[in-house]
Design a protein that fits this description.
Residues 450-484 form the Fumarate reductase/succinate dehydrogenase flavoprotein-like C-terminal domain. InterPro entries: FAD-dep_OxRdtase_2_FAD-bd, FAD/NAD-bd_sf, Fum_R/Succ_DH_flav-like_C_sf, Fum_Rdtase/Succ_DH_flav-like_C, NadB, Succ_DH/fumarate_Rdtase_cat_sf. It is found in: Cytoplasm. It catalyses: L-aspartate + O2 = iminosuccinate + H2O2. By secondary structure, the protein is of the alpha/beta class. It has three domains: 3-218 and 330-384, 3-Layer(bba) Sandwich (FAD/NAD(P)-binding domain), CATH 3.50.50; 223-325, Alpha-Beta Complex (Flavocytochrome C3, Chain A, domain 1); 398-491, Methane Monooxygenase Hydroxylase, Chain G, domain 1, CATH 1.20.58.100. The chain has 14 helices and 20 strands. The chain has helices at 11-22, 57-67, 74-93, 127-141, 201-208, 236-240, 254-257, 266-278, 294-300, 302-310, 367-385, 412-422, 429-444, 451-469, and strands spanning 3-7, 26-30, 47-48, 108-109, 119-120, 145-147, 152-158, 161-167, 172-174, 177-180, 213-214, 219-226, 244-246, 285-288, 320-329, 332-334, 346-348, 353-354, 494-495, 516-517. Strand 8 (161-167) and strand 9 (172-174) form a beta hairpin. Helix 1 (11-22) packs parallel to helix 4, helix 3 (74-93) crosses helix 11 and helix 13 (429-444) packs antiparallel against helix 14. Mean pLDDT is 91; it is low at 497-513. The chain binds succinic acid (SIN).
Length: 518
């Protein structure tokens, strides 16, 4: 029986775990918080899929590729949109109650860059929470072992293939295969919609194990996080329902940037917000949802409504302050269409993976769908694969930057400020080179770091290195020193661990007799 460890417990991880178990694998889910402490739980807008006869998979594919600036892998997009409807049916069978209209039809929301309303939601704006609860219950009911509050320190390799994982407390778990589903790395940035655990753990562990990563320069910034109190996502669905963005003078500015105004692709709206903020001394822009009325706001967006009111704001009466925030990482661990990475026995799914489906920018509400579709495929592949051939060494190492002599002391906060200033919505060569030098200096410092700090530092170095290498602007990667220059013909920058230092840590450690079997 194939023994599989799934690291991470969001929609991608739990879907993979369920499919692997249903196909005969013995599965252990390892997660660093409690089972429901995931990015998925915070997803508001919904899950995009073709569920109406007037909609087509060709239209969903075209929207996905337009949002991705054409850098998407067309085969991955076909899989995503083609298998989407079946995964919606599966989610319903597992207990997700998507919102419906009075006549029993799905209630479909419109979000930016979608040609038609196709975004299903549950509990109004609690789609992720509903999915998380249903999948968590299904995993418990299936008897899958769940190890909570267990932090992945590293992958373990034996003879060039996966042998299991090691946890922060030193415990080892043997496995034939590991599926990484640890989400993204929003915590690289000072402002993010992601929870505190989004520290790029899977990507960093995969890098240390020698796996290829790609597209890390493509970080999506959401245009509208609440700018009062802790950052909190205000779903694009609010703009889909008619809310508009205004500056300090009350002027709608989004149409200056794009004919679709507030519903233009996310990177366009996020940069329009940032530009408007720059012209008003950094004050947040405002999201005016007053036209929707108190009753509709509370019914359609109960989670956001509560968060807004907790901050002492009444969005039914006055526009609320919003700011862009890091939201999603399009790049990640390179996989094929079944989640296989370049390391035998290692799989990656969801935001941790780079399937090529998102290109240079993700279409709204395609992320839950990606987790469901590619989680299912990886779970089935891992049960089928059985034998993982060792591939020839193909890694390309990243050239390390010269350490800066004037780097401030390392802290998570300092790293987040650096990334926000130099590798955020708008980048240029000088700022990126400075960031690379500071990161190199922190990386060379032997002071002890937590696993999360070590992961953030490694992933940050790769984001900056990829952003430096892509000298033109495309999708979410905007270079102010080359705003109109098409990106060079490097559709997908792949890299593995840096040239020195943080190499594959546990390579060639054989499975230990005292390790737990999964
Ligand atoms: C949102 O609700 O605006 C976020 C949904 C997404 O990131 O796809």
């Amino acid at each position: 029986m194939t023994c599989v460890v799934v690291v991470g417990s969001g929609i991608a991880g739990l879907t993979a775990a369920l499919h692997a178990a249903e196909n005969g694998c013995r599965v252990t889910v390892v997660t660093k918080g409690a089972l429901p402490d995931t990015n998925t739980r915070w997803a508001q807008g919904g899950i995009a899929a073709v569920t109406h006869p007037a909609d087509t998979v060709a239209s969903h594919a075209a929207d996905t590729i337009t949002a991705g600036a054409g850098l998407n892998d067309p085969a991955a997009v076909d899989v995503l949109v083609g298998e989407g409807p079946a995964r919606i049916t599966e989610l319903i069978a597992r207990g997700v109650a998507f919102d419906r209209t009075a006549d029993g039809e799905f209630s479909r929301g419109l979000e930016a860059a979608h040609a038609v309303p196709r975004v299903l939601h549950a509990g109004g704006d609690a789609t992720g929470a509903e999915i998380q609860a249903a999948l968590g219950a299904a995993v418990r009911a299936a008897g899958i072992v769940v190890l909570e509050h267990a932090v992945l320190r590293d992958l373990r390799l034996a003879n060039g293939r996966i042998a299991g994982i090691e946890l922060d407390d030193g415990e080892r778990i043997d496995a034939d295969a590991v599926i990484l589903a640890t989400g993204g790395a929003g915590q690289l940035y000072a402002h993010t919609t992601n929870p505190a655990g989004a520290t790029g753990d899977g990507i960093a562990a995969a890098l240390r194990a020698g796996a290829a990563v790609a597209d890390l320069e493509f970080v999506q910034f959401h245009p509208t996080a609440l700018a009062v109190g802790a950052p909190f996502l205000v779903s694009e669905a609010v703009r889909g329902e008619g809310a508009v963005l205004v500056d300090d003078a009350g002027r709608r500015f989004a149409f200056d940037a794009h004919p679709d105004g507030e519903l233009a692709p996310r990177d366009v709206v996020a940069r329009a917000n940032a530009r408007a903020m720059a012209t008003q001394d950094g004050h947040p822009v405002r999201l005016d949802a007053t036209a929707l009325g108190a009753e509709r706001l509370a019914r359609r967006f109960p989670t956001i409504d509560a968060a807004v009111r907790e901050r002492g704001l009444d969005w039914a009466r006055e526009p609320i302050p919003v700011t862009p925030a890091a939201h999603y990482l399009m790049g990640g661990v390179v996989t094929d269409l079944d989640g296989r990475t370049t390391v035998p026995g290692l799989y990656a799914v969801g935001e941790t993976a780079r399937t090529g489906v998102h290109g240079a920018n993700r279409l709204a509400s395609n992320s839950l769908l990606e987790g469901a579709v590619f989680g299912a495929r990886a779970g089935e592949a891992v049960a089928r694969d059985g034998d993982w051939p060792v591939r020839p060494e193909t890694r390309r190492r990243v050239v390390a930057a010269q350490p800066a002599t004037d780097a401030p002391p390392f802290s998570r906060h300092a790293l987040q400020q650096l990334m926000w200033a130099e590798a955020g919505l708008v980048r240029d060569a000088d700022g990126l080179a400075h960031a690379a030098a500071v990161l190199a200096s922190w990386s060379a410092d032997p002071s002890p770091r937590t696993t999360e700090e070590r992961n953030l530092l490694l992933v940050a170095s790769h984001v900056v290195s990829a952003a430096l290498a892509r000298s033109g602007s495309v999708g979410a990667h905007f270079r102010s020193d080359a705003p109109d220059v098409a990106a060079p013909p490097l559709p997908h920058l792949a890299a593995t661990a840096p040239a020195d230092g943080d190499g594959p840590v546990l390579a060639s450690i054989p499975a230990s007799p005292e390790a737990l079997a999964c």
